[in-house]
Predict the 3D structure of the following.
Amino acid sequence: MGNVYKQKKIILPILILFSVLLLSGCDSDNQSLDTGEKTFKGNACTDDCSGHEAGYNWAEEKGITDPDDCGGKSDSFIEGCRSYAEEQ
């Protein structure tokens, strides 16, 4: 009888943790678990999101707060920059 109680005591936290991970649906910045599509702050990435990350980091370093101040030659860089600015 005591072993059954101990098993239930262990299984419940594991089920809760699994449920939370399952319901989260995606990694906050990089990849949707449902479709396998990589994203960065809601923007689709074509490869590894490095362009988005570079734009985001650049905007953070420069203190960009207005999305209209984001420019560049790469759409992903601009989207990353705009993501940072919109969070401010």
Summary: DSSP finds three helices and two strands in the chain. The longest helix spans residues 2-24.
